[in-house]
Design a protein that fits this description.
Blueprint (H helix, E strand, L loop, with lengths): L1 H14 L2 H32 L5 E3 L4 H5 L4 E7 L4 H19 L7 E7 L4 H6 L7 E6 L2 E4 L6 H9 L17 H26 L4 H33 L1
Parallel strand pairs: 1-3, 2-3
Antiparallel strand pairs: 2-4, 4-5
Helix pairs in contact: 4-6, 7-8
Length: about 240
């Protein structure tokens, strides 16, 4: 009861003093403003930290991603490549800068491909070493041959790319030769995986496993020849 009476007395004293009431209201207002400012600043920091960086491309999303109408600066790298590892922070800075430029007509997205894992994609671009950089705009592909630096890559992607020689479509990644290289690499990878499955998991002898693969390849080849022959014969009859 004594505590309750003391609290009531203090509340009555505060209410009886206009100055204290004004101070309490002003303190509450200042606290609210500071809290709002802190929250707004935190939101801005989160937005800055979550700015888009380098986009990871794989065989599954490569063609779909590049069909968005933008130009793409693409790095082919390998996890074991020391040059790629050292240049990674600079390439991330390239992505941050180019992705933040939203008002330019020549919009460039920055991506990377693990060439060691995505061998079919690396074969399409005839990648011979890491890191290798390409600027892809539709079916127009240019390779970067300058000194590897953040400034030079940005300049290449936005200004000096027109000075670089365009890779001929026939031998480019989107042409028939590039697609053929990709198909052969995928087929070779599939055959090697099947051979390892037959020898390691199914316990077949290496020679017997090779015989099975050769017989399967022969069957597939003869089937394709027959199908092509039937198609050609039907076209000749229609003509």
């Amino acid at each position: 009861m004594a505590i309750t009476n003391t609290s009531a007395t203090m509340n009555e004293t505060i209410r009886s003093l206009p100055f204290l009431r004004r101070m309490t209201s002003a303190s509450f207002l200042i606290f609210t403003i500071l809290l709002s400012w802190n929250n707004w600043t935190g939101i801005q920091l989160v937005k800055a930290e979550t700015a888009p960086g380098v986009i990871q491309l794989t065989a599954k999303n490569f063609d779909k991603s590049l069909s968005d109408g933008n130009a793409w600066l693409i790095e082919f790298y390998a996890p074991w490549c020391s040059h790629c590892t050292r240049f990674a922070p600079s390439y991330e800075a390239v992505a941050q800068q180019l992705h933040s430029e939203k008002n330019k007509k020549h919009k460039v997205k920055v991506a990377k491909v693990d060439g060691a894992a995505e061998r079919a994609l690396a074969s399409r671009f005839s990648v011979k070493g890491f890191p290798t950089f390409f600027l892809v705009d539709g079916w127009t592909v240019r390779e970067f041959h300058g000194h590897r630096s953040q400034e030079n890559l940005i300049k290449f992607a936005t200004e000096s790319y027109e000075e670089a020689e365009v890779i001929p479509f026939l031998f480019g990644p989107f042409g028939p030769m590039g697609q053929l290289r990709s198909f052969l690499m995928r087929s070779g990878t599939w055959v090697v995986g099947l051979y390892e499955n037959l020898t390691k998991e199914r316990g077949l002898a290496p020679l017997f496993a090779m015989a099975v693969l050769c017989f399967g390849g022969l069957v597939v080849g003869l089937t394709m020849i027959v199908v092509l022959g039937v198609v050609m014969m039907s076209k000749m009859k229609q003509d």
